[in-house]
Amino acid sequence: MEALKQELKENLIEQLNLEDVTVDEIADDDMLFGDGLGLDSIDALELIVMLDKTYGIKLTDPKEGRAIFESINTMAAYITEHRSK
Q1: pTM above 0.90, yes or no
Q2: To 10 degrees, what angle do helices 72-82 and 41-55 make?
């Protein structure tokens, strides 16, 4: 699980072009949207694409995405349970 969290942080930085953020600056329980990293709805779409391409997970319900993208911890737990790649 720790390796997956590390990979998620690296993918997040790369996919969203977060040039001023390092892996060490993202805590596993940091909020990704709002007061946390400050991601927005466009970033959410990028994360949905990343889940599909990297882990074979297709999200169809936007409400489901809100819960999944809450933090690195919630993303890692969801991927562990649902990944097909």
Answers
A1: yes
A2: 30
